[in-house]
Amino acid sequence: MSALPYHSADPELALKHAIQHHARERVQIVEGVVEPMTQGWGQEAIAGRVRRQLNDRVHALGCLMGAGDLDLPGSSNWFIPDVAVVPAALAKDGDALLPEQTLLVVEVTSEASGDIDRVVKPRRYAEYGAPLYLLIDRRGGTCTLFSQPGPLGYARSVGPLPFGEPVELPEPFGVRVDTSEF
What is the reported pTM? Predict the structure, then answer.
């Protein structure tokens, strides 16, 4: 038996290390439960449409857009959003970022993740300082933009707006997201 390269008496750190370095598939941890990432084509199609609409502005801001790991230290949570916009200087191989280091987090619901995206993630993203959280709810056919994060949740939300109504992302984006093809 070979020695493991990581030792920790902290169960949170040990679990987060294990999913980053030993999992055969991408998984996230939601309230202590390991959840495999099972993104379907419908979910990916919407995430792709969002990426295309934001691409020029993201590059102008010196940012990157992707589905990288977000750590929520001090909790049993490790999220992998459908889309996150982060400053390019912070994106490094193997490093998870904190929600407060993002400019925008987008979650597109699926049958498996819908309640997590609607209930758990808005609360946790706000608690950990994600400035903007866009929830694209395929079951409800709506989008909700959350802003002004705080320890008790987001202080402001716009929506739910039905698909077809644009979502106005505030500065630093200043972009209108067309939802008519969601």
Answer: 0.83
